[in-house]
Every structure is written in C-alpha cells, then in structure tokens.
C-alpha cells in the first residue's frame, strides 16, 4: 500500500488541477419586456439556459434579470443564486444576481449595495436619472480546495458619466473591504468602453481578464449586439476583472446564435481562471 500511495497521488494531481480551475462569466440577459417582440424573454429563455449549460459556467453574474427571469433560470438546478432587486432590495426591479454551482461552492456570506451616495438603501446615484443601480456580492468557498474568494457583480448607469466614475470607485472600495486578503472577482455590465474613465479606474487596481489571458482572446471584442445579427457588435461594455492572485487561462466573448437570433442583446463574457 505504501508503494501504491505515490502513484495514487500522481494520478490525482491532474484532477485536482482541473478542479482548481473555474469558468467565470458575466451575462446581461436583457429584462423581460413585451417591447422586444420576437426577442421577448419567453422566446429566449431556453436558449439562455442551453448556452449556460453547454459552456459549463461555474460562476456567473447576470444583469437586468427580473424576478420571474431568475425563477425561470432555477430550471438550471445545479446552480444556486443570490441577489436582490434594485428597486426595493427584495424582489422588485432588475437584479445583479450571482449564480454558482452549489455542489462545488459553499456560500459563506452575501449582500447587496446601491451604486449611489447612500449605498445602504435603494437609491439613484450622482447624475444617474433613470434608475437605481445595484451591486451584489458573494463570498464562496471551493469545497474541494478549501479556497475562499469574493465575487462581486454590478450594472452601472447608462446615462450618468459621473455615476459611472463614482460607481467604479465605490465598487473597488467595497470589493477591497469585503474581500480583505481573499482573491476577488468583479464582473458586470459597466456601460463603459475600454477608453472610459470608469474602466481606467478599475483597471488600475484589477486585471482585465481579456488583457491578461494566456491564450489569445476568442470571439468578437464587442459585447453589445442589440439583437442585431446583420452587423458586428459595436461596443465592449461587459467585463470580468480579477485581483492579481488569479491566472486567466483563456477568455472569450460568446457570440452564439440560434436560427440567426441571439439569446440576449449582450454576448456573455467567459474566462477560464485558476488560483496558482
């Protein structure tokens, strides 16, 4: 038995390495609204669920989803999720929910805050006139490796330049405070292009997964497609940022379509990451 032990350990090493890797994604699902006609949620939800399962998301943040959409996604029963509605901190309004594989990860803590001058209460921030904006977070522990980390998911304002800049500062400050020494993942729809001040603020502190991917990025650079399959997507506004502890093995923007229709008006962004 003693002679067999080193062999067994060697055989287990590739499995342990694979288990330490993680598919992280961010996906703006587009809210459920009848204005979308043929692209209403009821016409897209099966495609969204199929995409998530096919690409093997382990941890993923959503933006815009309403409570009924999150209920529909519960059909993906390998996942649990956290996150509150931005309008009342409960169920009302869009969510920035975080989904995770419950067989792999243990949820240790979670919470929400608003991207505003009063982050503890449902509120609009700075020059954001349209909507309340929310961020949700989860501290998770990998049941195999024992490693804990913090995941933070946000949706920035689409109108307010000041709101996006200050949201970036708030997001970083809260992320650092909540994570402490733990590895940090920040994901979301930042409604900001790579040359914006908001992205520059976050990139100064965290690594843009696309920029540090060990393999060349796959797929289009832009992430907002507006449901238009007749032309290339125009803007990159969805990101995954990581603290320096993470290695990014590969990065992709997934432009999957079915019968010339996209599952959402954003492409999901996927990064394969690991902790050394």
Could you provide a short overview of the structure?
The protein is α+β, with helices and mostly antiparallel strands and 276 residues long. Helices cover 24% and strands 27% of the residues.
Written overview of the protein:
- The protein has 276 residues and is an alpha+beta fold.
- It has one domain: Endonuclease/exonuclease/phosphatase (Deoxyribonuclease I, Chain A, 4-Layer Sandwich).
- Helices cover 24% and strands 27% of the residues.
- It has 6 helices and 12 strands.
- The strands form 2 sheets. A 6-stranded mixed beta sheet has the order 3-4-2-1-12-11.
Give the count of helical stretches. 6
Structural class: alpha+beta
The radius of gyration is 19 Å
The helix-strand sequence is HEHEHEEEEEHEHEHEEE
**DSSP helix fraction:** 10-25%
Task: Assign the CATH superfamily.
Answer: Endonuclease/exonuclease/phosphatase
Uncertain stretches of 5 or more adjacent residues: 5-18
Shape by Cα distribution? globular
What's the domain count? 1
For the sheet with most strands, the description reads: 6 strands, mixed
Number of strands: 12
- Average pLDDT across residues? 94
- Strand order in space, largest sheet: 3-4-2-1-12-11
**At CATH's second level, what is the architecture?**
4-Layer Sandwich
For the structure shown, list the relevant keywords:
276 residues; alpha+beta; Deoxyribonuclease I, Chain A; six-stranded mixed β-sheet; 12 strands; globular
Write the layout of secondary structure elements.
Blueprint: H1 4-19, E1 21-28, H2 41-54, E2 59-63, H3 67-73, E3 79-82, E4 98-101, E5 105-114, E6 134-142, E7 148-155, H4 161-179, E8 184-189, H5 197-203, E9 207-208, H6 209-212, E10 238-242, E11 247-253, E12 269-274
Parallel strand pairs: 1-2, 7-8
Antiparallel strand pairs: 1-12, 2-4, 3-4, 5-6, 6-7, 8-10, 9-10, 11-12
